């Protein structure tokens, strides 16, 4: 826990008055229009520098030449099948990455769009696994102001400067708009999931404008947090002596990013809803067989605010009307014709034609008066399709149905509910924001790193039958069914949701997959469509949160990469624990089956099977998630040494944090299987696993020999966690077995790796075997997070962490870059491979969390502050809202928008352990496991599993077959 007298920082905050005048802040200080004291800030005229990507050294390139050739061949083979390889270092986006990102729009799992701090909409991720980074320049907010009977007029796009994209043929017509905003007196303020843009007298010196962006990301609210919608609330304050007529314009192209607006067959349609909400629906026909998308742009008409629309305009001169004519109409009148609401659907657009829509909100603002205008954006893509054909209904369809017109209901509800959303967001954030013990930079970085749960390519699907209360436009989907003979036998024998193994591929399908083939009927892979019975759901209705996927990163397109989820999962456990438990259940099921399809591993060119029984998969797949796991094919991850221990540690942490006994009994068989699988890597029977002389863990370019600090520590922690979980579940035989293993393995690891100051990288004889690895105490991190006894005595833990702090942190730019992964004891960075010489953002946060548990709070926050300085500060490299996996000593990035930095929530977990852990008995749980004299009686976990099943009375959501 953080002490009451915490340390001081040279610059602990960015006071808003440093960016906006105090007078303006006071004018906006109502209705949440003023930005908060704690926020990430930028002036709109800040330079958005181009980011620099890392490059391998000559020697690294030589070592990887064979891998490169095989990877190149694999990428081309996937492309020939119309698919994108999960790792493709050869293809680069046409739009170079820049330091221009901001808070993304929408909730989780229904696609996302980013809005940069300068106001541009970019990074469209509507289709799973794709991210079109280029901004769509027609998507803009603009303002029109008229004073003194029209003798004073101002008109400007609310995004500074003319953009280079305006010269492109697809954007002709936009250059006629008023790109007049300098951005010198305008600022952006971000505190995810909200953002504020304040125009302090731009373009009208006597008008103060605040735009508040609100998305429904609300912890523990599993309904609103799934909604693909965002609200923009504009507060206008007239400081002049004459009233002003102000019109705000929201324009939107019928596009899902890239050049999709040119593909043709897109239709725009005006609509009117209840409560004064009206706008335009933009029906987009996607390419490559993807399901259609409908956007809605809307505004709310009130007694003082009038709303009009222009359902369709084009960017080229041949359009009717043109973008130029539309701008002229607004500049002259400030509104469109009311008759446009009756226009009906437009004709489908022709290939090469861009179809846009506009909505205007207008009002008179009296001298020294104030006015509020609210806009909303939503996108409805009810079905999500993966490249190998399976389609699923997104989670939000449970509440809004599958009609293409659901987008109009989404914007309506957003405009009528956003105040409640804000209250819930503030109720969640305020205890942390008001905690005076915490540094200011930590507070807003903590929340802003959550951007990844929206823009990290998340997919959230529904899993159950639709609610009967839904409107009739929601078709009643069929539940997944299995063949009669198999299911009846399982139900009669076990009374639980047993795993059914496909005899041909070894694939496992779950009753709540909710997938469909192309004709819409819901079936399991490889099954015929006759002779089915309904298969029962395994989850209680209150716990049914569907299925959730998030990418390792937008450049590494693999769903729920587990070695990285180990770091990121603290955010889900803290904020959406039911989603975290559902992911763990997926991996528990995966442990127990085998997929014998052949895969070529690119590092060595050898062949193996896709999924080995007992091994935790690296990921849930890419093009057919849940059904074709382990999209990662660089190494054979069934031989990795960290995945199985990480599974056990996450399961125990989640079990102890939630106190969910049902969850514990469900996943216990998988825990036993995962632990027994690892015994093959104990080559000398000393109860400690050994690495195999290749990069067989999450550092997949960093070779390990023999016993290693990273995997060895994870293994020790997993042994202890398994013993503790066995005791709590009543499996005393397993508890004793794993306690014995733990005690022996701990002694061996300390003998082989402890050098009196820290744990050596490994027990080999290579040039880096004595390197100081920043992540050497990853197992201790989880041990402390789960309130288990420390793996080592306090002196060893504190000595190791102090060594990491002194060398990996402070010897790298004075602690202003984070913790470098590897450091030689002579103070030189370990450059044996690209990963040893990198700073990994998520690992740095994990190290800081471990320091907090060890009572080293000042070192912890100094360590983590290096990530803030390098990644988020104005003097840093520009990685805000796209935090990469890591960077080199010169700040060049590798893999932007990456999952692992969510581990900053591991720091918050350390600062505020959940009540169920804090209230746990203070007795050392390992001391409660009594060791009996060694005997010949069996120690196989199966006996304990059967006993637990009986005690748990065959929980209906059990993943194992109980025999009560």
Characterize the structure shown:
The protein is of the alpha+beta class and 964 residues long. Helices cover 29% and strands 18% of the residues. A hairpin with a 6-residue loop joins strand 22 (500-501) and strand 23 (508-509). Helix 14 packs parallel to helix 16. Strands 1-7-8-9-10-17-14-13-12 form a 9-stranded antiparallel β-sheet. Strands 6-5-11-16-15 form a 5-stranded antiparallel β-sheet, covered by helices on one side. It has 22 helices and 35 strands. The chain is globular, with a radius of gyration of 28 Å.
Question: Keyphrases for this structure?
Answer:
single chain; disordered C terminus; globular; five-stranded antiparallel sheet; 29% helix; 964 residues; 35 strands
Write the layout of secondary structure elements.
Blueprint: H1 22-28, E1 40-43, H2 58-63, H3 65-80, E2 104-105, E3 112-115, E4 121-125, E5 140-147, E6 152-157, E7 186-191, E8 194-200, E9 207-214, E10 229-238, E11 244-253, E12 267-272, E13 277-284, E14 293-300, E15 306-314, H4 323-333, E16 355-365, E17 370-380, E18 383-385, E19 391-393, H5 397-400, H6 406-433, H7 440-448, H8 452-455, E20 459-461, E21 481-483, H9 484-494, E22 500-501, E23 508-509, E24 515-516, E25 532-534, E26 547-549, H10 562-575, H11 577-591, E27 595-601, E28 606-611, H12 643-658, H13 661-678, E29 691-692, E30 705-706, H14 709-729, H15 732-753, E31 772-773, H16 778-785, H17 794-809, E32 822-823, E33 839-840, H18 841-853, H19 857-872, E34 886-887, E35 893-894, H20 904-911, H21 915-918, H22 941-951
Antiparallel strand pairs: 1-7, 2-3, 3-4, 5-6, 5-11, 7-8, 8-9, 9-10, 10-17, 11-16, 12-13, 13-14, 14-17, 15-16, 18-19, 19-24, 20-26, 21-25, 22-23, 27-28, 29-30, 31-32, 33-34, 34-35
Helix pairs in contact: 10-11, 10-12, 10-20, 11-12, 11-13, 12-13, 12-14, 13-14, 13-22, 14-15, 14-16, 16-18, 18-19, 18-20
């Amino acid at each position: 826990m953080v002490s009451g007298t915490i340390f001081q920082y040279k610059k602990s905050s960015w006071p808003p008055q440093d960016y906006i005048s105090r007078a303006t802040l006071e004018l906006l200080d109502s209705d949440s229009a003023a930005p908060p004291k704690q926020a990430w800030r930028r002036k709109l005229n800040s330079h958005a520098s181009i980011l620099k990507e890392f490059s391998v050294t000559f020697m690294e390139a030589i070592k990887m030449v064979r891998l490169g050739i095989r990877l190149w061949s694999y990428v081309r083979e996937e492309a020939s099948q119309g698919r994108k390889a999960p790792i493709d270092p050869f293809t680069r986006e046409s739009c170079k990455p820049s330091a221009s990102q901001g808070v993304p729009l929408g909730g989780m799992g229904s696609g996302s769009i980013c809005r940069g701090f300068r106001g541009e909409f970019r990074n469209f991720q509507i289709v799973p696994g794709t991210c079109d980074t280029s901004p769509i320049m027609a998507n803009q907010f603009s303002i029109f102001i008229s004073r003194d009977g029209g003798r004073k007029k101002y008109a400007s796009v609310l995004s500074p400067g003319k953009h280079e994209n305006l010269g492109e043929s697809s954007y002709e017509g936009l250059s006629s708009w008023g790109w007049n905003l300098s951005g010198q007196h305008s600022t952006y303020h971000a505190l995810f999931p909200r953002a504020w843009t304040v125009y302090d007298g731009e373009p009208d010196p006597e008008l103060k404008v605040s735009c508040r962006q609100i998305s429904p990301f609300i912890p523990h609210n599993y309904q609103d947090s799934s909604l693909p919608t965002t609200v923009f609330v504009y507060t206008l304050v007239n400081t002049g002596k004459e009233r002003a007529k102000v019109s705000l314009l929201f324009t939107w192209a019928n596009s899902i990013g890239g050049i999709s607006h040119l593909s043709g067959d897109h239709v725009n349609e005006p609509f009117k809803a209840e409560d004064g909400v009206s706008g335009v629906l933009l029906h987009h026909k996607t390419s490559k067989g993807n399901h259609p998308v409908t956007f809605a742009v809307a505004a709310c008409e009130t007694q003082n605010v009038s709303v009009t629309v222009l359902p369709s305009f084009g960017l080229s001169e041949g359009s009717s009307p043109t973008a130029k004519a539309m701008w002229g109409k607004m500049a002259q009148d400030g509104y469109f014709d009311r008759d446009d609401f009756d226009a009906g659907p437009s004709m489908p657009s022709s290939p090469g034609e861009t179809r846009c829509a506009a909505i205007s909100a207008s009002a008179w603002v009296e001298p020294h008066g104030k006015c509020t205008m609210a806009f909303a954006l939503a996108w409805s893509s009810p079905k999500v399709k993966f490249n190998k054909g399976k389609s699923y209904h997104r989670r939000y369809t449970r509440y809004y149905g599958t009609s293409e017109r659901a987008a109009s209901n989404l914007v309506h509800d957003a405009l009528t509910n956003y105040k409640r959303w804000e209250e819930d967001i503030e109720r969640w954030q305020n205890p942390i924001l008001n905690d005076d013990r915490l540094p200011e930079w930590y507070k807003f970085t903590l929340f802003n790193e959550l951007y990844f749960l929206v823009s990290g390519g998340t997919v959230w699907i529904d899993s159950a039958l639709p609610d009967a209360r839904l409107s009739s436009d929601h078709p009643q989907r069929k539940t997944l069914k299995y063949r009669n003979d198999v299911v009846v036998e399982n139900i009669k024998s076990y009374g639980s949701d047993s795993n059914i193994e496909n005899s041909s591929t070894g694939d496992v399908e779950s009753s709540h997959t909710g997938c469909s083939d192309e004709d819409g009927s819901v079936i399991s892979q490889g099954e015929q469509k006759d002779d089915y019975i309904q298969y029962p759901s395994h989850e209680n209705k209150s716990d049914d949160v569907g299925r959730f996927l998030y990418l390792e990163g937008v450049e590494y397109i693999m769903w729920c990469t587990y070695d990285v989820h180990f770091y990121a999962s603290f955010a889900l456990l803290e904020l959406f624990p039911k989603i975290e438990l559902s992911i763990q259940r997926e991996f528990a099921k995966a442990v127990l089956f085998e997929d014998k399809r052949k895969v070529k591993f690119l590092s060595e060119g050898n062949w193996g099977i896709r999924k080995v029984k007992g091994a935790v998969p690296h990921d849930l797949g890419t093009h057919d998630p849940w059904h074709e796991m382990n999209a990662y094919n660089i190494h054979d991850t069934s031989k990795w040494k960290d995945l199985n221990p990480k599974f056990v540690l996450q399961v125990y942490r989640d079990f102890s944090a939630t106190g969910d006994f049902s969850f514990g009994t469900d996943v216990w068989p998988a825990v036993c299987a995962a632990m027994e699988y690892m015994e093959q890597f104990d080559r000398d029977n000393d109860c400690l696993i050994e690495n195999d002389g290749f990069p067989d863990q999450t550092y997949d370019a960093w070779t390990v020999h023999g016993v290693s600090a990273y995997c060895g520590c994870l293994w020790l922690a997993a042994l202890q966690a398994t013993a503790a979980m066995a005791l709590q579940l009543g499996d005393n035989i397993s508890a004793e077995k794993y306690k014995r293993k733990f005690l022996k393995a701990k002694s061996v690891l300390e003998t082989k790796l402890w050098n009196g100051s820290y744990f050596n990288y490994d027990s080999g004889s290579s040039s880096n075997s004595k390197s100081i690895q920043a992540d050497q105490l990853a197992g201790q991190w989880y041990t402390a997070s789960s309130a288990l006894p420390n793996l080592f005595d306090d002196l060893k833990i504190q000595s190791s962490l102090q060594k990491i702090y002194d060398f990996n942190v402070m010897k790298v730019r004075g602690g202003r870059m984070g913790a470098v992964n590897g450091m030689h004891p002579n103070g030189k960075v370990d450059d044996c491979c690209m990963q040893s010489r990198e700073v990994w953002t998520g690992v740095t946060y994990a190290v800081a969390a471990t320091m907090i548990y060890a009572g080293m709070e000042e070192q912890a926050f100094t360590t983590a502050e290096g990530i803030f300085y390098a990644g988020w500060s104005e003097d840093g490299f520009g990685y805000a809202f796209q935090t990469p996996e890591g960077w080199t000593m010169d700040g060049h990035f590798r893999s932007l928008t990456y999952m692992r930095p969510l581990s900053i929530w591991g720091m918050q977990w350390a600062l505020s352990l959940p009540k169920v852990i804090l209230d746990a008995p203070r007795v050392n749980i390992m001391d409660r496991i009594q060791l009996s004299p060694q005997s010949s009686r069996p120690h196989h976990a199966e006996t304990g599993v059967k006993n637990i099943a009986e005690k748990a009375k065959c929980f209906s959501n059990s993943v194992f077959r109980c025999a009560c």
